[in-house]
Amino acid sequence: MAVSQLSAQDTDQLLERARAGDRGALARLISVLERGGDAAASVERGLSSRGAGGYTVGITGAPGAGKSTLVNTLLGEALADAGRVALLAVDPTSPLSRGALLGDRVRMHSHAASSQVFIRSMASRGQLGGLAVATRSARRLLEACGWPLILIETVGVGQVELDVASTTDTVVVVLNPGWGDEVQANKAGLMEVADIFVINKADKAGLQATRRDLESALASLPAERRPAIVETVASEGRGAADLWAAIASHREAITLSGELASRRQQQLRAELHGLIDARLEAELDQLFASGAADTHLEAVAAGALDMAAAGDVLLRELCRRASAAIAG
Ligand SMILES: Nc1nc2c(ncn2[C@@H]2O[C@H](COP(=O)(O)OP(=O)(O)OP(=O)(O)O)[C@@H](O)[C@H]2O)c(=O)[nH]1
Ligand SMILES: [Mg+2]
């Protein structure tokens, strides 16, 4: 049955199976969340706000930095530590064709066949409320189904990078040798996002210069907030243990300091904000599609109504419709 036709009973059953460890059911539920709509809302209702205390690590960086290769080597370390690991590979830039491409790459993961590993790619097409909403819901679903460790790989592009950063507990930013200029240009953004820096492709020229640029960019931060820098050659599996140790150490530090609790609070806040945003946007699209704005727009065009006043009228109508939708 197509995911768009699933009833609340169907999604409840899927959820039960996913909780029992069925990875196929989990994959279908993520498809439901990606599509949004009533079925997604019914999945949402079946999730308690936090599961069994899953921990989420984000791995972000420019296209081709070696994130997938790195994650693949990291899975071994993560599995040894946590027993079960879920990976969401999120591609915010993907036009239609890249979804499939990403799927192929995901299948290349050497751990994909293990029942202790769940790997899923998520593309942004067709999503209500953009990437962040479905990613956050998928994270919550995984937690509710008892996955203790969730890795989220995402291509770092502007706002999406920040959004995904606000969805994860530890953020790993992947750079490459020769990126000194980029470090300087993106200094503020990188410092805001990164908990750990990886210089991957450490087998390539320019490693020392990039490391120096990074260290000088971070020098102004107090020592306890300064991100660790780890060098890796993901294609040869080198540095994966060091990176895993850095992640574990960051996790321990923020757990002890109480920062993890405040990050989680921020994440819930961002999630709720995003959820309401998505619902209002859908309602607004419907409002315009229904023609309700047309007469006001004509009045604005004729100079009989100013834009702000038209906005007020439509905002009132939007609120009325949103309330009716909740009540109904
Ligand atoms: N020389 C070298 N090549 C590497 C290393 N790690 C990854 N690569 C290569 O870099 C290319 C890109 O690797 P991916 O892991 O697909 O990079 P990615 O960041 O996931 O790419 P996107 O998902 O497309 O953004 C591949 O050809 C890898 O084999 C490394 O440490 N050294
Ligand atoms: Mg990748």
Our measurement of the CA-to-CA distance between the termini, rounded to an integer number of angstroms, reads 27 Å
User: Biggest sheet: strands side by side, in what order?
Assistant: 3-2-4-1-5-6-7
Q: What is the strand content? A: 5-15%
Assigned CATH architecture of the largest domain: 3-Layer(aba) Sandwich
Considering DSSP H and I runs of 4 or more, what fraction of the residues is helical?
Answer: 55-70%
CATH superfamily of the largest domain: P-loop containing nucleotide triphosphate hydrolases
Given helix and strand content, the structural type is alpha/beta
Number of E-state strands: 7
- Residue-averaged pLDDT: 85
Classified by CATH, the class of the largest domain is Alpha Beta
Order of helices and strands: HHHEHEHEHEHEHHEHEHHHH
Radius of gyration: 22 Å
Unreliable stretches? 94-105, 126-130
Per DSSP, the total helix count is 14
